[in-house]
Design brief:
alpha/beta, globular, 2 domains, 21 helices, four-stranded mixed sheet
């Protein structure tokens, strides 16, 4: 790639180069109990006719699920379409990082090098599957790029209002952090003009929000939207605040990168005057993105929240050291080594997937997935049991973390019971879900012997104390009303 402006050919080359490892990793990821399965279940429900926030306890704003619905329904109808969606989101994130590096006046070769470094850093994202956090972060970075290029856009304020809306309606807290950061930056950078900018951007954002609210009123999901995405957030934050075991290394690494980026920023802004505004903008946006690590402090959320700090750190190294490297052969060798490393991980994922059982039934919602033999046996045993009981006129709900595995396979929707996690149940959710389970008749309840940390303890204890245990299916206990 020559060191010139970004053109369509550059983007096409980057698309091919990045999508090869993304595809190797994403398509061959093992189907496990986790975020991918839980997010996919809600999209599967929408495809089967459910209404968002009515029959689905979706706790974030809707853009991620609406786009995902289109991808899955019109591409494959299976989890393969969801994994293609994951590839597109991650490519968009990496491309936005590449464009941001170019916007900071870094040539194309080094911008691609830094994008590969970012790729290595965000590798945990790929196996997690398509996720609203990554999509929101991509929009966040697009907004930063837009700010840096505002003089090139006649209707900049309206575009920025669209970015605010897109970010808020993808993940509400990240959108709020972006809006606060943008207002502060415009006040600092644009001074007197900032008032006009802010008013126009917020007004356009509110207009788009009003349209979205009217659509939700028309579809009957507005009250559910408020319940799950706003009123239930307090319970989500209180009940899910946690720090992963052995987090000390993550915290130390996180603080080192963050502090180094800000210290270097102060040093460079004094040494190189013409980049001080860039540092101010990136630093403020990164500070607010750091808040997204809460309430669940683990490796995935840490790598997500600190991404902008990493970009700042790379930018500073570029200005202090790397820009002085004139030998492109050295850079090209480093790029080649990084690219081989990334693809090697993808090949390892392919190799591991060959050891698992691959679902080849084209009628299965999990078509093309590789799954451990133990989990596949569990899937078959539990779904066969559910079918048998339904023929006898007995309903089944599964209130454990692996419940979505069975219910999505059978294309069944049990509402809030499909993912009974703290904070996923709306306002006063724990009390409401216990009230609902008391009204069940002619129904059996399946619970895992080992409780997942986000499951509602009170619901589990209520079932144990008030229902009768009648058997087991592998790792699941079976209860029915007395």
């Amino acid at each position: 790639m020559k060191d010139n402006k970004i053109n369509l050919l550059n983007i096409l080359i980057i698309f091919v180069l990045l999508c090869i490892p993304l595809s190797l990793i994403s398509i061959n990821s093992e189907l496990i109990i986790g975020d991918e399965l839980w997010n996919f279940q809600n999209i599967s429900k929408l495809i089967n006719g459910a209404t968002m926030y009515v029959n689905c306890n979706i706790i974030v704003t809707p853009i991620f699920y609406l786009i995902g619905y289109c991808f899955v329904k019109y591409i494959t109808g299976t989890i393969l379409g969801f994994r293609i969606y994951n590839i597109i989101i991650l490519f968009s994130l990496l491309l936005s990082c590449f464009v941001l590096f170019k916007t900071l006046k870094i040539n194309i070769t080094r911008s691609f090098l830094y994008t590969l470094i970012v790729f290595l850093f965000v590798m945990p994202y790929v196996n997690v599957g398509a996720n609203y956090n990554v999509l929101a972060e991509t929009i966040y970075i697009i907004g930063i790029i837009l700010f840096f290029n505002k003089d090139r856009f006649k209707f900049y304020n309206f575009y920025q209002g669209l970015v605010i809306f897109s970010c808020v309606f993808t993940k509400q807290n990240i959108g709020l952090y972006y809006l606060i950061g943008l207002i502060i930056i415009e006040i600092i950078i644009d001074k007197k003009e900032s008032i006009h900018y802010i008013i126009k951007e917020i007004m356009f954002f509110l207009c788009l929000t009003l349209i979205a609210v009217l659509i939700m009123f028309n579809t009957g999901c507005y009250s559910g939207f408020l319940n799950y995405t706003i009123f239930g957030m307090r319970e989500f934050t209180i009940e899910n605040t946690s720090i992963e075991q052995s987090i000390e290394v993550i915290i130390i690494g996180y603080l080192i990168i963050a502090l180094c980026s800000y210290i270097l920023g102060f040093f460079i802004s004094r040494k190189i005057k013409n980049i001080s505004n860039n540092i101010v903008v990136l630093s403020i946006f990164s500070i607010f993105l750091n808040f997204s690590i809460f309430p669940i402090f683990n490796l995935y959320h840490a790598s997500f929240a600190i991404l902008l700090n990493l970009i700042i750190f790379i930018f500073f190294l570029e200005k202090l050291l790397i820009c002085n490297i004139k030998n492109n052969i050295i850079l090209n060798v480093i790029i080649l080594l990084l690219y081989i490393t990334i693809n090697s991980y993808g090949i390892i994922c392919v190799y591991k997937s060959c050891k698992n059982f691959r679902i080849v039934d084209k009628e299965s919602i999990y078509y093309s997935s590789n799954i451990s033999l133990n989990l596949y046996k569990q899937l078959e045993d539990v779904t066969d049991y559910i079918k048998q009981k339904e023929e006898e006129g007995i309903g089944i709900i599964c209130i454990t973390a692996d419940g979505p595995l069975y219910m999505t396979y059978l294309k069944k929707n049990n509402g809030d019971f499909d993912l009974c996690f703290n904070g996923n149940l709306g306002y006063n959710g724990k009390k409401n879900i216990i009230n609902k389970i008391q009204t069940l008749e002619n129904t059996q309840i399946l619970m895992n012997k080992n409780i997942y940390w986000q499951e509602v303890d009170e619901l589990r204890f209520f079932v144990i104390e008030n229902f009768k245990k009648v058997g087991n299916i592998n790792d699941l206990m079976i209860y029915e009303s007395i």
